[in-house]
Design a protein that fits this description.
alpha/beta, 2 domains, six-stranded antiparallel β-sheet, TIM Barrel, eight-stranded parallel barrel
Amino acid sequence: MRNILFVFIFVLINACKETPQASKIKNPFSVEQISDGVVYEVNIRQYSKEGTFDGFRKDIPKLKALGVKVLWLMPIHPISKEKRKGELGSYYSVSDYKGINPEFGDAESFDRLVQTAHDNDLLLIIDWVANHTGWDHPWITANPDFYTKNDMGEITDPINPETGEPWGWTDVADLNFDNLEMQDQMISAMEYWVRKHNIDGFRFDAAHGCPVNFWKKTMERLTKIKPLFTIAESDGYHPGGFELVELFDMSYSWRGHHIMNEIAQKHKTAKAILDNIRTNTEDYASNHILMNFTSNHDENSWGGTVFERLGESVKTFAALTYFLPGMPLIYNGQEYGLNKRLAFFEKDFIEKDQTDFVDFYSQLAALKKKHPQLHLAKDVRFSIINSSNTNVVVLKRTKNEKSLYFIANLSEKEQAIETPITGSFISLMNDTKFILKDSIKLAPWEYHFLNQ
């Protein structure tokens, strides 16, 4: 009898190791959880002077107050040393899909971070680099057939399919998605993070670089564990198209982002924003979420700070991302008015000065939380109001017959407009009366959230 009991306990213990505990699988994703919030991208290395999970974790209550509902951590895995760029290397040069970068902490400190996020009702997702690994990943020697090879049988860095030439990402080795064993091991590694560390989803780096069928298998297996929130770094106009991006909850509004830059730099007018909204409405499924942003890690480090790209229109376009269909993104530091390009391969630091951007993003968070017209919901109707001026946008969001309006001059010159909407409104950002007449004038980059 004692032997039978011992065997039973042994089997039970090992079954518990393999099967996710019901008590651990908390915070399953639903749109309702995040409908009034924003996504916050975390660069652990640069967020704090410590550059650790614990250095970031203490600020989670502050981020909750900014309306953050989803924490997206840039890759947290160990970084390859072979062919490394800079002193510390790129987060996107992974040497172990199941490991944690010791620069950031260990498994225990990561689990504390996940728990703190959940205690504050936030989802935590991690960046997943499926296209390539670093050069000292164990697969390089153990499974060389997992990789793309040239005519001489040598593993290659990623190749631009349009030119046949390398992209210049010499610190990573390109994975071969014709190898189904590699695909299976990749998906198993993702499952590990959901089961072992109870994360709430993934942001998939350059998702269009992997076959659609791979992502279908991935999502089928991951969602059997628990509902997850997923972001594809792609859009419907990249390879894979809408069949790819609509496998995930969210994708990038790349066109909208580039249009904002082009308007600020006087290459386009506000009409381009309106045309893009109409195109998105026609092309994307109604339940797909577009991520609207003025910055992210790539744009900040390589494209330029928001001040370099947007100049005096920084707040205008940030405010617009809170009104457009979809969900806004804050890249860490924007809430403090980050005005430098963060080093990508070296240690840097985000200064957390109490600038007026703290109040600005706090106001936006309060507006989004208070007004259900700004939420993600099936019964929210978005519409464009025609005006007489191609430099101005007038937008409307309606829920339960109550409407909010957004009006903005997207130019560096004063603009006079005519609009069919008239009446007395409250400009919500400064809580002042705003009279909308047949003809009004807006100062350069002036914008308003209007409520009657």
